[in-house]
Amino acid sequence: MADSASSGKVTNNNETSSPNNSPHLAFTTISNIKLHILVQLSFSAPNYKKWSRLFRLLILRFNLKGFIDGTTIASSADDAEWYQFDALIQGWILSTITDEVSDLVLANNLSAHALWKAIYNLFHDNKHARAMQLEHRFRTTVKGQLSIEKYCRLLKNLSEYLDDVDAPVTEHALVLQVLQGLPHDIRGQVQFLHYQNPLPTFLEVRSALLLVEQQQNDSVYAAGAPSTALLSTGGGGNYAGSGHRQDRGSGYGSSGSSGSGGFGGGHGGGSGGRGRNFGSGSGGGNRGRDYPGHNGVKN
């Protein structure tokens, strides 16, 4: 096996590379594989297809595809260059999968090709039974209380899970299921989408549904705004004005002014209800009571 430092090319022949060749670009360019493969393969997310595609793109970038499909093999047990590349790719694989996955595939897989194949088999075992379960869930999913964003993402994830077990969902079927699972109030507003030819894409339908959802939210907000404003401006009406309802006022003075209310004496024309005059004078409190011993009032 040989490589070309200028192009980063690796061939699957048995030629030995020149000792003067510079290190391969794969060794000098990739310092952190997670910056190039942002997806971590796991059982908890439908990301096998995404992970494998990103990995293949990186492998193709450096012309190392033969190490995972098995077409590039060591020329001999002493082919140090081959073992260096194989170890590099194994490290890339193990760095981008979870411990849960690596624990199941690490043993007895001593090459990048064997490791790659074991991971593929792990995510495709019992695929027919899994496909049946996923298909049922996909067909019975409805929006319910989910937001449009979460609802669309759920169906998209289910379609990707099905793709992982070799039961791909066409975009046409995905769009129809998204529309089928909508509640009646939203479905009525996007009924026109059913009659478009060709049918809109998943992203186009998602955008239309998000717009409808936003319009509904705006309508609810607008309907509630006037009553809220009325409450804030009219709520203090009982406390405004000139104190005509200041029952049981706290004035004990002798010269209460108009509107000084109950328990107030004085000479003013107060209109407070049930006032009690503790002082002299002719306060006008309704149903006032004169207490003896003040200013010559008879005992």
Automatic annotation (TrEMBL):
Domain of life from the UniProt record: Eukaryota
Which stretches does UniProt call biased (Gly residues)? 250-286
Query: Pfam families recorded for this chain?
Result: Retrotran_gag_2 (PF14223)
Where composition is biased (Polar residues), the residues are: 1-10
Write out the ranges of the annotated region (Disordered). Answer: 1-22, 236-299
Ranges annotated as biased composition (Low complexity): 11-22
| Cited PANTHER family | COPIA-LIKE POLYPROTEIN_RETROTRANSPOSON, PTHR47481
- Tell me the protein's name: Retrotransposon Copia-like N-terminal domain-containing protein
Q: Tell me the organism.
A: Cuscuta campestris
